[in-house]
Amino acid sequence: MKIIHVKRRTLLAYVLSFSSGCLVLWIFLFFSSHQSVRPQGSIDQTALDSVGKVGKPNQLFGLKDFGKEANKDKSAKPIIIPDNAALRNMSWSALAELYHSYLSQIQVVCKDIQRIGRITDGGWDVCTDPGYIPKEPCIVYSFGVGDDFSFEDSIIRNYGCSVYSFDPDMKMQSQQRGKNSIFYRQGLADSDRTLTNGWVMSKFETIRASLKQTSKKLSVVKMDIEEWEWEVLPDLLATDHLKTVGQLLLELHQCHGCSKYEPQQEDKEPNRDHYIHMLELLSGLYRKNFRIFHTHKNRACRYISKFTLSERSACFERSINGKVSMGCELPILHFHIDGKKILMWEPNHFSF
Length: 352
Hints:
By secondary structure, the protein is an alpha/beta fold. The chain is built from eight helices and 19 strands. The chain has helices at about 1-35, 45-50, 85, 90-105, 150-160, 205-210, 230-235, 270-285, and strands spanning about 40-45, 115, 125, 140-145, 160-165, 175-180, 180-185, 185-190, 195, 200, 220-225, 245-255, 290-295, 300-305, 310-315, 315-325, 335, 340, 345. Strands 4, 5, 6, 7, 11, 12, 13, 16, 17, 18 and 19 form an eleven-stranded mixed β-sheet that branches. α4 (about 90-105) packs parallel to α8 (about 270-285) and α7 packs across α8. The protein is globular, with a radius of gyration of 23 Å. The model is unreliable at about 30-70 and about 325-350 (pLDDT under 50). InterPro entries: Methyltranfer_dom, METTL24.
């Protein structure tokens, strides 16, 4: 009987120890998940079949307001890209630090950000504050579909927009997908041409003209075009087309090959000239009055910086708001690296 009694106590001790371990593990996982998944806003109908209520008009912030509500750290100073001459005098490491710091900041507050499309890859964050929320008859251009129409279908269902989707790398032929949805097997570039692989590429200006929408307001333009953004952005900045764009959602890929998931690609650090090129284009968007309201780092593009030995992302998704010259309810402007950011503008706050 004594031996049996000892075994029972030993068994009880093992059970209590195992239960305590499970409880500690559960607590750790619970708090870890809450820290690593921080919602930027509410989720749209694709995820939960509900659209969040529109809040009060958000306050816009000019340059003098950076580091206040737009950034939680009230002592933080806004990160501004210097002129081109100054960029060319900066070291490679300083350029890398500037690029990642600039894309990690929030430049203006959007109080109501909706996740449009999938919660995971394929969805995008859109500002739906009064003055920015897409309203019928809204027009949306979506460049880069990747066989996932969740964003396009959701913005049609929730806001009644007419959506024009473009992707040269899909097996689907150009077609009318629905009442408000048209797909074109066509890509976006800085010139009109057909590539050796058969892709038909067109300028932004050519696409708008062919749709007879050259002067119409575009509520949202989404660009996830797998490194072609660095070719397209100079063309857009050289024209006035961005004046009629409400929100610009960009996925930026900083290195050659970053648009593909290649964990074995260890060196994702762009060379010095490419950092200068990217920063000049980001500065160009700033001068076009686009401001960042949301940014997200794609963890599939993680790498270790050769300069700081810290983890960085080679892909940013940016959501930005920019100037709308027509059809906007408020006198403001609004504007996804492989991450996403959104920008907004108030005329009296900026001088360039």
